[in-house]
UniProtKB/TrEMBL annotation:
Name of the encoding gene: fbp
Source organism (scientific name): Thermomonas aquatica
Reactions the enzyme catalyzes: beta-D-fructose 1,6-bisphosphate + H2O = beta-D-fructose 6-phosphate + phosphate
Binding positions (Mg(2+) 2): 119, 122, 286
Keyword Transport (UniProt): no
Family listed: Belongs to the FBPase class 1 family.
Alphabetized UniProt keyword annotations: Carbohydrate metabolism, Cytoplasm, Hydrolase, Magnesium, Metal-binding
Entry's EC annotation: 3.1.3.11
Protein name per its UniProtKB record: Fructose-1,6-bisphosphatase class 1
């Protein structure tokens, strides 16, 4: 590595030296990054690693608390993150998309002051067709005086996050991280086995001509969403006065990474199918961490009617509608919703 390469370890030591993170938070991010390297190796093996396909035994699907059929890699990624974070003494408890409730750190290990939430494998419907997937994580403080955290102690708004990030397992494996002072990207140097800082201070362009939504749900959308997307599809002769492009990977990590890199707006709005549950995407370990990263990169994130990071969680697996990305475009989407309420 040339001397100009700053490793994740050096970046975190410098953040700690600057007083922006604690030693335990530095350890936490290092541990999660190391677990993501293990997940990247498992994902990269594909069919050769016996990790593709659905979890479960004897032809019985393994259904998680979300009502989804788990993939083997959902379960393996979850186990890797649980094992990596159990013994370090930096956490009081953890919660996962793949676990019904949160879990305190086992009694045989020391406990720390942080709570870790994660989506161990995001976009898992793509894993069997070799399309980018990822891991998303969010870090909260355990409330003072709470030694044995329960679900209720995780129910903090997104503004309470002290760190958030994702790892995207794509052509390259990249870790994107915020500790509240900008959003920074690290690329895995596989020969050395360490993450190297490749973008300090990601910045999302304020305007965009690119939107990401699953348009197959169009007939189920609320009126504001119909109008908002309809006007974009009308192109330069329509009310928006410009042509738009569309991308939809169906891995939130891949779509949001593109938007952090070149701008755009990601949305998973309410539709009549998911509205009874409050939306499709989960607040605590998808929408909130991604919103923290996007805001720290100069973007915006909303439910369409409220700043995402201000939402008061009512449950560990609470779902929300999501609009995030280029600030001016998110504000436009919010205006469409305001105009229709
Ligand atoms: P997960 O694989 O963790 O359950 O998340 C999948 C999510 C998100 O990654 C993606 O944006 C969205 O589901 C895709 O939804 P559709 O399949 O309905 O397009
Ligand atoms: Mn899932
Ligand atoms: Mn997900
Ligand atoms: Mn997942």
């Amino acid at each position: 590595m040339s001397s100009t390469n700053i490793s994740l370890t050096r970046f975190l030591i410098e953040e700690q030296r600057a007083g922006r993170i604690s030693p335990d938070l530095r350890l936490l991010v290092e541990v999660v990054a190391r677990a993501c390297k293990s997940i990247s190796i498992a994902v990269g093996k594909g069919a050769l690693g016996g990790v593709l396909g659905d979890a479960g035994a004897n032809g019985e699907a393994s259904i998680n608390v979300q009502g989804e059929a788990q993939k083997k890699l959902d379960v393996l990624s979850n186990e890797i993150l649980l094992e990596a974070n159990a013994w370090g003494g930096h956490l009081a408890g953890l919660a996962s998309e793949e676990m019904d409730t949160s879990h305190p750190i086992p009694d045989k290990y020391p406990r720390g002051n942080y709570l870790l939430l994660f989506d161990p494998l995001d976009g898992s419907s793509n894993i069997d067709v070799n399309i980018s997937v990822g891991t998303i994580f969010s870090v909260l403080r355990c409330p003072d005086g709470v030694d044995n955290p329960g679900d209720e102690h995780f129910l903090q708004p997104g503004t309470a996050q002290v760190a958030a990030g994702y790892c995207t397992y794509g052509p390259s494996t990249m870790l994107v991280l915020t500790v509240g002072h900008g959003t920074h990207a690290f690329t895995l140097d596989r020969e050395v086995g360490s993450f190297v800082l490749t973008t300090r201070g990601m910045k999302i362009p304020e305007e965009t001509r690119e939107f990401a939504v699953n348009v197959s749900n169009q007939r189920f959308w609320e009126a504001p969403m119909q109008a908002y997307v309809g006007d974009m599809l009308a192109g330069k002769d329509g009310p928006r006065g410009k042509d738009f492009n569309m991308r939809w990977v169906a891995s939130m990590v891949a779509d949001v990474h593109r938007i952090l890199t070149r701008g755009g707006i990601f949305s998973y709005p309410l539709d009549s199918k998911c509205a009874p549950k409050g939306g499709k995407l989960r607040l605590m370990y998808e929408a909130n961490p991604m919103s923290f990263l996007v805001e720290q990169a100069g973007g915006a994130a909303s439910t369409g009617r409220q700043r995402m990071l201000d939402v008061q969680p009512t449950g560990l697996h609470m779902r929300v509608p999501v609009f995030m990305g280029s600030k001016a475009e998110v504000e436009t989407a919010v205006r469409y919703h305001a105009g229709h309420d």
